[in-house]
Design brief:
It contains 22 helices and 5 strands. With 509 residues, it is mainly alpha-helical. The chain has a domain of 200 residues.
Length: 509
């Protein structure tokens, strides 16, 4: 049976329309600040609309039952083109863009958060033209990573993201922006070297860079080969997640980055590490995935507990949210290590849920910082009386982050714990200890809410103004998603279920 294709190359359009936006922005005069902002917003809004079309088209294809009746190599995928387009035939490099249940939710989240982040960046006043040009280039890289099914293409998009993120932090960031930008760049580049070694090892073994072909040929990889190449890829992806002990670049990058860049960093870039493991490492090296299950679960457990404990000690609000990401991504590692359909589905739920919730928290931290010019938790108090709407929204996302039932955070953590406890590949004590993370998360979130929003109002902040319409515009879609996925998890699980089942079969046979 022929692989399914879109009515038009939607993935290519989603990826490269922001590139046209860069040219449009650069052609405008630097004095035309309003025109630059709205041009960037338009060229980010179009990929977001296309991501909605992608979700609808994929959902419709699932309804026809054709999508999962294909051969194992193209099972669950819809492609831009029926055949790979020859790019560099001399070295067997092709242009292959496809999407499945792993990438469709992440492409939607990328489109949404990119558009929201550009709207949230309207307050940028310094070198506006360059800022929005770099931001659109960052969107090109992010979209490409989730679409590319050729390793050369995947690696190009992966590296493209480094440069704009380096400049966005290094030029528009906080007082220690150069240090944070260089640290982020060096850490990620170090991981990319290991990934490149893994890609070359696969290329010299099979002679192809087609990811689906390499998955189909995984029976020819020896156990030793799988163990070494899995480890190389894992280092590259673990730095991006970031898994403890590779996490130290994250708090610095978050604290110094502009608000919108922190949203993208937490909402999308961290997810690329877990996406890479599930897209590449697990199906290509199934023996290694099983062999490394316990070490990955232990790294996830350390991340959960360590991230939560360090968050409790933070005095800076943005640093607290940054370290909470280390903890929450630890849940993803635990669910992934389980190698059960429920565990991996929980990991994917957590990726989507964390992107929405933490993205919103960083936006709200930015709203407060723009007015108060401080992020010190102890400096505030009783803000609930002065800013009731802001307080209500902040508490909503705080409760979602600590896993309150009827919020998306609860669904993902519940799935991970149940799926991991039922796993035959990891020890049950790891899951039992990991549950402590839920208690610790509740402790640092409730402590932060109590110190900032409850109690006696600090009259120093008498001049603070309520959250405005533009800021609410960026927050409300994320609030709706958090509640909808929490109340009706099937809205997301319907895209994941068959793809995850297929992935687990590829690993365990």
């Amino acid at each position: 049976m022929e692989p399914l294709t879109f009515d038009f190359p939607v993935l290519t359009y989603m990826t490269f329309i922001p590139l046209i936006g860069i040219i449009a922005v650069l052609l405008l005069k630097k004095e035309s600040v309003g025109a630059i902002r709205w041009t960037a917003a338009f060229f980010s809004f179009v990929p977001f609309l296309l991501s909605i079309y992608l979700v609808w088209h994929y959902f419709s294809a699932m309804g026809t039952a054709e999508l999962f009746n294909l051969t194992s190599s193209t099972r669950g995928f819809i492609f831009d083109y029926p055949e790979p387009l020859k790019w560099f035939p001399q070295v067997n490099i092709n242009y292959i863009m496809g999407a499945d249940g792993l990438s469709v939710p992440m492409l939607f989240l990328t489109g949404l958060l990119s558009f929201i982040s550009i709207i949230a960046s309207f307050g940028i006043k310094n070198r506006v033209k360059e800022y929005f040009a770099w931001f659109l280039l960052l969107e090109v890289g992010m979209m490409g990573v989730f679409c590319a099914l050729d390793f050369f293409l995947f690696y190009v998009f992966w590296e493209i993201m480094l440069v704009p993120m380096y400049f966005l932090i290094g030029v528009w960031g906080g007082p220690r922006r150069e240090y944070a930008a260089i640290k982020f760049f060096l850490y990620t580049l170090f991981g990319s070297v290991f990934m490149l070694i893994g890609i070359l090892a696969l290329y010299f073994t099979v002679g192809s860079l087609d990811m689906l072909e390499l998955i189909r040929q995984n029976s020819m990889y020896s156990h030793l080969f799988q163990m070494w190449v899995f480890a190389a890829f894992f280092i590259g992806f673990a730095i991006k997640v970031p898994v403890w002990p590779f996490h130290t670049w994250l708090p610095d990058a978050h604290v110094e980055a502009p608000t919108a860049v922190s949203v993208i960093l937490a909402g999308i870039l961290l997810k690329m590490g877990t996406y890479g493991i599930l897209r590449i490492s697990y199906p290509m090296f199934p023996q290694a995935a099983i062999a490394y299950a316990v070490p990955i679960a232990i790294l996830g457990l350390i991340g959960i507990i360590y991230g939560a404990l360090v968050s409790m000690a933070q005095k800076d609000l943005k640093k607290l949210v940054a370290y909470s990401s280390v903890s929450h991504m630890g849940y993803c590692m635990l669910g992934m290590a389980a190698i059960t359909p429920l565990g991996i589905s929980g990991c994917l739920f957590q990726m989507f849920s964390h992107g929405v919730i933490t993205g919103a928290l960083f936006l709200l931290v930015g709203v407060l910082y723009d007015r108060a010019h401080t992020r010190e938790i102890a400096a505030f108090g009783g803000l609930g009386a002065k800013l009731p709407i802001f307080t209500g929204v902040f508490v909503l996302f705080g409760m979602a982050s600590l896993g309150l039932p009827s919020m998306s955070g609860f669904v993902s953590e519940f799935m991970i714990f149940v799926g991991s406890y039922k796993s035959i590949y990891i020890d049950k004590w790891i899951v039992v200890v990991a549950v402590l993370g839920v208690v610790l998360t509740a402790a640092y979130i409730l402590r932060m809410v109590q110190k900032m929003f409850l109690g006696q109002f600090n009259t120093k902040w008498e001049g603070l103004t309520e959250i405005n319409g533009r800021e609410l515009f960026t927050i409300i879609p994320l609030a709706i998603l958090t509640i909808v996925v929490g109340v009706y998890p099937l809205a997301l699980n319907i895209f994941l279920k068959d793809t995850v089942d297929n992935l687990v079969k590829l690993i365990v046979g």
